Amino acid sequence: MRDQRPTNGAEPAVAGIALGDVPVPDTAASRAALQVASDYHSPALLNHSVRSYIWAAARATAQRIEVDYELLYVAALLHDIGLVREFDSHTVPFEVAGSHVARVFSAGAGWPAERRRRLAEVIIRHMWPDVDVSMDPEGHVLCRATAMEIVGRYADDFAPEFRAEVLEHDPRLGLATQFLTCFQDQAARKPDSSAAGAVRAALETRMADNPLDAPEHPGDS
């Protein structure tokens, strides 16, 4: 297992991969997770979840990080389910609420207790500043993928051509505005939550600098 960043700026950290190279699990659980996400997410949040998996799985594939792709896929599709009205919680942070939904989902899918626990961990940890790859490879790649999606962190790890291919396949559909509104709402109702911390840490300003929403992708913003 390894996770290397470029040292001379000449080559992206996630190189030599195209969208068609990203493995997408075709299992009953992965298909059901996509159906649940499609039923409850807005189009922008659904595309965000799909892209989060793509960035995460591309990093794992290109850097030979050993991950459970099915677990990673389900986690990516459900990592923001706690933001939607039907699963929102007024008592716990959205990522914790989402982890409970995922535990119920994966129990229904027949996953054993340890795998259900791991799924919940990955979803909670996507809000961490970073996750040690040796401790949690799925959490590591998803955490970096979601940070890239929202504030553009790690965007330079991917070749511009690959980023453009992903954005054309799954456009952003005004994600920035919708996501910021969600986080501001979470912050107002749950001031001790991670979402509130992000808002206090100038989330709006950092989102405005996201290269994924740059003018060269006029149809995506």
Automatic annotation (TrEMBL):
| Sequence ranges assigned to domain HD/PDEase in this UniProt record | 41-117
Q: Which Gene3D superfamilies match?
A: Hypothetical protein af1432
Q: Which Pfam families match?
A: HD
Region spans: Disordered: 190-221
Q: What is this protein called?
A: HD domain-containing protein
